[in-house]
Write a structure and sequence with these properties.
Elements lengths: L7 H26 L10 H55 L6 H24 L14 E5 L7 E5 L21 H54 L3 H27 L9
Antiparallel strand pairs: 1-2
Length: 273
């Protein structure tokens, strides 16, 4: 039926064209942003999942920073401990030399001066082994903690190692000297004990540093995998979207032509008169 009041063909053509334009807008948005789910209105469930995973990735960044700070603090302590170990070996050599009863007073005094210079250097190293305001070897910090997960509910704890002279690890007193054969002999024994304790302390610090490094690598991998998972959920397949764009543009042109034909159909009524 031909009617001048209602053009059913034009209405149908317009509905189809509007639908095509809507799909074309969606496809163009995906191409522009690279996302098939850019907001909650695209897919509420997927968007919610992706946002939760993005929060985890942001959390992993904070975890990584915390681990890096802890690692640097422990590595500074390790470097200082290794330097102290070298000094202790040199001090043992001086103590053994000074324990020789055949030395003259002047010769023993020379050994003693070298020994005290090395001894004081240990104190200097201990006081300067600091990173970000934290010193793990001077007895002022009981332990440090690094965040281990994105929720902040798990931590990795590294305990301090007091490497100060006369502390729990180095039993050699801060006033030790080699002014006599007796003192030199006693210093040899004390230094040997201190070295054994120091080696164990360094082993503990080294183990902690390795644990922090291993966990840091794991967190980085976990962050990368999570980001890839987010991409799988929300990223658009640009090859498919490009092909779809071409199809929709063609469909849009055909829709415009169909609407034009439908709009001209009402003029047929004039031919009846």
């Amino acid at each position: 039926m031909v009617s001048v009041n209602t053009n059913y063909g034009a209405m149908a053509a317009l509905q189809q064209l509007n639908s095509t334009n809507s799909e074309l807008e969606t496809t163009q948005s995906r191409i522009n942003t690279g996302l098939k789910v850019g907001s909650a209105k695209d897919n509420g469930a997927i968007y919610a999942i992706a946002q939760g995973m993005r929060a985890d990735v942001a959390g992993y960044g904070v975890v990584q920073e915390s681990l890096d700070r802890a690692t640097s603090t422990v590595d500074v302590a390790l470097a200082a401990g290794e330097a102290i170990s070298d000094l202790m070996i040199d001090m043992k050599e001086k103590a053994l030399g000074a324990a020789d009863s055949s030395l003259t007073t002047a010769q023993r005094s020379a050994f003693n001066e070298d020994f005290k210079a090395l001894r004081d250097q240990i104190t200097t190293i201990v006081s300067n082994a600091e990173f970000n305001g934290t010193n793990l070897i001077n007895g002022t910090t009981a332990s440090i903690e690094a965040i281990a997960d994105a929720d902040g509910t798990s931590v990795i704890t590294v305990h301090d190692e007091n490497l100060s002279l006369g502390g729990g690890v180095l039993t050699l007193a801060a006033t030790a000297s080699l002014d006599t054969v007796t003192n030199a002999s006693a210093a040899v024994s004390t230094i040997e004990t201190s070295l054994d304790n120091l080696n164990q302390a360094l082993a503990r610090l080294g183990t902690s540093s390795k644990a922090l490094g291993v966990h840091s690598d794991f967190v980085q991998q976990l962050s990368d995998v999570t980001e890839a998972g987010i991409g799988n959920l929300v990223d658009a397949d640009l090859a498919k979207e490009s092909a779809r764009l071409q199809a929709l543009q063609t469909k849009q042109q055909l829709g415009v032509q169909a609407l034009s034909i439908a709009n001209s159909s009402s003029s047929i009524a004039l031919s009846f008169f």
